[in-house]
Amino acid sequence: MIVMSRYICSLCGNHHLRLSDMTPTVESFYREIDELVDEYKCREAYTKLESLVDFIDDKAEWHRRCAEVCYMISNMEEKDQERVEWLKKGRKHALDAHELNPSSIEILKILCSTTGRLAEESGVRDKINLGFEFKAHLDRAVELDPTSFEILHMRGRFAYQAEQLCPGITENRLYIGRVLHAKGEYTAAKKWLIEAAHATCDDDEPVEREHIAAARALLLHRVYQK
């Protein structure tokens, strides 16, 4: 889409087009991209966004739009590996956007969305790590916009998923406890460590015994003796 306007020449009194106004603007390109997204042509939209990168001053907004398009592509992708790759790409754009503009609620929303969905698609360890990262971004988003239904919905969904996260596996309980301990969240860490420490196992489960022993050893730390 090309934006054009005319001006009246002071010499001849005629209307002329400004050459600068014959150049497509960033806004017009974004409108084209929005139209492609509305038509579910998201891959084409992403290709156009990539071609714009050297002409964009507001890189945070460019990364945000890229992240949103990548997220939409991932939702339409049937192959698991392709879906994960688009989520990773979208999350990278969202992280770059957040670094450039950490107070943007729209950027935080897409950062939460890409991180949360990537956590759902990941193995247990990555799921836990991404879950903690998601929670940190979500808490920041709530601070900026505590009335947003979208953000509050994400928080409720996260709480439910955290409760459902492989509760019967001692190794996972121990891992969550260790991560929380490293983050200084001792009250939450103690809950998971106690659950791991109270687990039982048979004599032919040496690895399970090691996890139980590790949890009990960490609970001897002075922060848990208060």
From TrEMBL:
<dbReference type="Pfam" id="PF21033">
    <property type="entry name" value="RMD1-3"/>
</dbReference>
<dbReference type="InterPro" id="IPR011990">
    <property type="entry name" value="TPR-like_helical_dom_sf"/>
</dbReference>
<dbReference type="GO" id="GO:0097431">
    <property type="term" value="C:mitotic spindle pole"/>
</dbReference>
<dbReference type="GO" id="GO:0008017">
    <property type="term" value="F:microtubule binding"/>
</dbReference>
<protein>
    <recommendedName>
        <fullName>Tetratricopeptide repeat protein</fullName>
    </recommendedName>
</protein>
<dbReference type="InterPro" id="IPR049039">
    <property type="entry name" value="RMD1-3_a_helical_rpt"/>
</dbReference>
<dbReference type="GO" id="GO:0005739">
    <property type="term" value="C:mitochondrion"/>
</dbReference>
<dbReference type="GO" id="GO:0005876">
    <property type="term" value="C:spindle microtubule"/>
</dbReference>
